[in-house]
Amino acid sequence: MRAGVLISGRGSNLQALLDACADPAFPARIACVISNRPDAAGLERAGRAGVPAIAIDHRGRSRAEFEREVGTVLARHGVDFVCLAGFMRILTADFVLRWQGRIINIHPSLLPAFKGADAHGQAIAAGVRLSGCTVHYVVPEMDAGPIIAQAAVPVEAGDDAASLAERVLGAEHRLYPMVLRWIAEGRIALRDGRVEISGARTAGGMLVNPIEPT
Ligand code: GAR
To answer: Which residues are catalytically annotated?
Structure first.
């Protein structure tokens, strides 16, 4: 499978995917990385990994032009699957439907809670005791597609959006490559808008937070 990764910034999730794909046994390759921001640090990560890194600045282009160029670059690199990794532009329904079932995103909350921007600020404001991240198929409605997998982490007393983001990010870096592998292995099916994963086991136990003082 040849994945194209769309980013807007730091690219730490991209790095997790690049690291996973560096293993010859991993069933997917990153064919190219596209950023809508020319100064995105993630572009350098791609370059260091020997992966074509392309900036397509969204400024000064219409949304249609921007997406046309993204599509052209993806096609040029033989991409058959798209991963959004900290990509902060909303994609049009046109683009999303063209890639339907072949485009996924990672969002830093336990969806359907805290969609959109500042998921961690929303989680802190809501006072939740657990948060986490979600990998889901992309549909035209933002952060609303079929959920593939989630990872939960505790929200600690005294957390702010930044400290929670850091903890969730650790979970993202484990979850995203795992899901990409399952997809590349052909183990994930979408049936009636729900995701089925062959061979996956349900995680045991439970995460309780907070717990009794010792
Ligand atoms: C990640 O936490 C990702 O889940 C989030 O942006 C961060 C990007 O970090 N994505 C969204 O909020 C999308 N709505 P990264 O550039 O280091 O991977």
So the answer is: 107
Tokens of 148: 């593939």
**51 CB burial (10 A radius; 0-12, 13-18, 19+):** buried
Write out pLDDT tens, residues 123-175. 999 999 999 999 999 999 999 999 999 999 999 999 999 999 999 999 999 99
State the distance from the centre of ligand 1 to the C-alpha of 213, rounded, in angstroms.
34
Q: Are 178 and 200 in contact (CB under 8 A)?
A: no
The pTM is what?
Answer: 0.98
Which atom of ligand 1 is nearest the CA belonging to 165?
2
Indicate the fold that domain 106-200 takes in CATH: Rossmann fold (3.40.50)
Ligand 1 within 6 A of 4 CB? no
Quick check: CB of 108 below 6 Å from ligand 1? yes
Which CATH code for domain 1-99?
3.40.50.170
* Residue-range domain boundaries for the chain: 1-99, 106-200
